[in-house]
Amino acid sequence: MSKRAKGWVLSLVMTTVFAAPALAADDASVRKDLTAVIALQALPCGQVVHAVRQGESDYIASCQDGHRYRVFVNSEGRVVALKQ
SS3 of 75, please? Predict the structure, then answer.
């Protein structure tokens, strides 16, 4: 294996090792924020247990009680939660 290939492998491993905890922490805070948004709009949810990012400020949130919502910022700058 060439030195260049070893360098790429090492950088990939290091990125994975250091990025994974940051992503996990961010995921928990995103779920908490989505839970608050859904509750403030008086929609049934309980707690968001899984969230998938669709784009910038656009998520699909799966709730503890089975409901799913698309939570996003509309063109007017308002946060909207739509039942899926």
Answer: coil
- Number of Cβ within 10 Å of residue 4's Cβ equals 8
Find all residues with CB under 8 Å of 52, minimum gap 6, and list them. Answer: 59, 60
What's the whole-model pTM score?
0.69
Task: Using the Cα atoms of residue 21, residue 69, residue 73 and residue 42 in order, give the sign of their dihedral.
Answer: negative
Residue-by-residue pLDDT tens, the chain, 84 positions: 566 655 444 444 444 444 444 444 458 999 999 999 999 999 999 999 999 999 888 999 999 999 999 999 999 999 999 999
| Residue 1 DSSP one-character state | -
Alpha carbons 64 and 17: distance in angstroms, whole number: 30
